[in-house]
Amino acid sequence: MTTAPSLATLEKGFRFAPFRLELDAASVRKYRDAIQDRSGIYDAPAGPQLTPPLAVATFALREMLVHVRLPSGALHSGQEITSFRAIPEGTVLRCETVVTQRSVRGGMIVLGIEFDATDIDGGPVLFSARTSVILPQEETA
User: Fold this and answer.
1) What are 89-103's pLDDT values in tens digits?
2) Does a structural domain hold residue 46?
3) Looking at the domain assignment, is residue 2 inside a domain?
4) What pLDDT was estimated at residue 122?
């Protein structure tokens, strides 16, 4: 069995294999229940409900972490999200992920990771996110 690489070992420019992200209704509802969203802004008058943009980011980050090991002491330090249109639950996305920043400061590694999501057929970008993670440098040894 192959051990997943540590997130701390990834270099700037590293690209994860594109992955499929299905925003199934049950998962989106569980997410909305977990954050206790009662605002109604994601409730469509007819048809499927809408997916909160932060749910898309959460599910994409979760899928990325299937392929790398998150070292002890890692800190999620920031999140930026751009949603170019509402995304209904049930939508299947194609996500591309790349490490866009890697620097070492004070014995810590700072990673910037960007996600772009299109519909499964590769149309225009529907959602874009950037996440920042701080990791202990000693995890790279």
Assistant:
1) 999 999 999 999 999
2) yes
3) no
4) 81
Q: Is residue 124 part of a domain?
A: yes
For residue 78, what are the contacts with CB-CB under 8 A and spacing of at least 6?
Answer: 130, 131, 132
Structural tokens at position 37: 């969203």
In a domain? residue 1: no
Cα 94 from Cα 74, distance rounded (Å): 26
Residue from 131, 129, 132, 10 nearest 69 by CA: 10
CATH classification at residue 125: 3.10.129.10
For residues 106-115, give the mean pLDDT.
Answer: 94
Q: Which residue has the tokens 């954050």?
A: 35
| Domain extent for 49 | 7-140
pLDDT tier at 4 (50, 70, 90 boundaries)?
A: confident
